[in-house]
Amino acid sequence: MRQKMTWMFVISFCLLACMLLPTAALADSAGSGVTGDPNIYEGVVNTGFGTVVAGDVVLCTYGDICSLGSTANWEGVLAFYNPTNGPFLADDSPDATDAEIFSDDQTGYYSLSNFLASYTGLSGNALVLDLAATPPTAYLNYDIYSPTSAVPEPGSLMLLFSSLIGLAGFLLLRRAAVN
């Protein structure tokens, strides 16, 4: 009986580990803005791409007519900037080390409305970029990502719940063996 309980515990633990380890790895790689990350994400300060020329990239919905002069169809602004100047200053100096996306699907600091209320004008080297029909949108050597809601696949949920059921069974058997 004790050997069966031990095996149930080992199997439950392995199933749970198989579920949690890949999830932790994905959480570390998605949207991190870490040094050397070739992707640019919404909702974080992106760094690690070296020093580039400061500037603004106006992001427009795929297929919409968009211009630098009218904010009507802007979906977001990607600002490359020097941290001492901040992202809202019209700057085209060659010392930008950070980037942020201000988007119409964000709230608070990273919202497009905050950028439009705070910026002093677009930089002299601003440009318009249509977002791709399917993400990511490529800009120079970077891929631009909008945040997506993480919905676990059914197999992952089944694995999680089966390991929890196995763990509960182990604890019930252990409690029964003690009494």
Order of helices and strands: HEEEEHEEEH
Helix content: 25-40%
As laid out across the biggest beta sheet, the strand order is: 4-3-2-5
The whole-number mean of residue pLDDT values reads 74
Give the domain tally: 2
- Beta-strand residue percentage: 15-25%
**Class computed from helices, strands and strand pairing:** alpha/beta
**Whole-angstrom Rg:** 24 Å
Q: Name the shape in a single word.
A: elongated
What's the number of extended β-strand segments? 7
Number of helices: 3
The biggest sheet, with number of strands, parallel, antiparallel or mixed sense and barrel status, is: 4 strands, mixed
Distance between the termini: 14 Å
Q: Which spans have pLDDT < 50 for at least 5 consecutive residues?
A: 21-35
Task: Describe the 3D structure.
The structure is a single chain. The chain is an alpha/beta fold and 179 residues long. It is elongated, with a radius of gyration of 24 Å. It has 3 helices and 7 strands. A 4-stranded mixed beta sheet has the order 4-3-2-5, with helices on one face. Strands 1-7-6 form a 3-stranded mixed beta sheet, with no helix packed on it. The protein starts with a helix and ends with a helix.
Summarize the helices and strands and which ones pair or pack:
Elements: H1 2-29, E1 39-41, E2 55-60, E3 74-81, E4 98-103, H2 112-118, E5 127-130, E6 137-139, E7 142-145, H3 154-178
Parallel strand pairs: 1-7, 2-5
Antiparallel strand pairs: 2-3, 3-4, 6-7
Helix pairs in contact: 1-3
